Amino acid sequence: MAKISVLIEGYVNLKEKNEIFEHNCTVVLIETKGKKIIFDPGLDRSALLKSLEKHELKVEDITHVFLSHNHIDHCLLMGIFPKAKVCTSVHFYNSNGYGKMIPEVLGDEVEIVHTPGHLQNHYSLLVNNEEKQKVLIAGDLWWWAINEEQKVDYKSLINKDDYFGKDLNQTKKIREKIIKKVDVVIPGHGKSFKINHKEK
């Protein structure tokens, strides 16, 4: 089973409903079978390095970087890991060999899931954790602003607005499908939460 650690809890501070003032994404560390995977390294270098240090890790220890999508608050720091292979849109590339595909997976505890809507090329990870839970590391399939109430009942989760998404209807369909498969969700911005399957 994989060990999952939230290195940075993401946040979005909005001036207006659709105008960002400041933000950073949730950064997640997945440790499984010798691999150390960073999901969305974000854009706050200082915070990321401090969090890695707390986990007794250096950037050289990271073996893989997985990008949910190419918005700058999720992917800006992807190049600071000198030994990591970068995975975006389900393709792996050597950080020192641009464009060279690597026929490798993240391990049998980690499933790559296409979750379009926020962007067409948006991906999430479904991970079996040490507590034998199915954890969805969601990226921006779900996200909340700082002053926004984080409602996690079924109906609210499926219908949650996405001010910066490309196709909300598609997002809702993906949410409705995937929510039945998971126990815990780590959103792109906001607090992690458990799914109450008794509500169905």
Automatic annotation (TrEMBL):
Pfam families assigned: Lactamase_B (PF00753)
Positions of the Metallo-beta-lactamase domain: 24-189
Gene3D superfamilies: Ribonuclease Z/Hydroxyacylglutathione hydrolase-like (3.60.15.10)
Entry's localization field: Cytoplasm, Cytosol
Protein name as catalogued: Metallo-beta-lactamase domain-containing protein 1
Reported function: Endoribonuclease that catalyzes the hydrolysis of histone-coding pre-mRNA 3'-end. Involved in histone pre-mRNA processing during the S-phase of the cell cycle, which is required for entering/progressing through S-phase. Cleaves histone pre-mRNA at a major and a minor cleavage site after the 5'-ACCCA-3' and the 5'-ACCCACA-3' sequence, respectively, and located downstream of the stem-loop. May require the presence of the HDE element located at the histone pre-RNA 3'-end to avoid non-specific cleavage.
GO cellular component, one term: cytosol
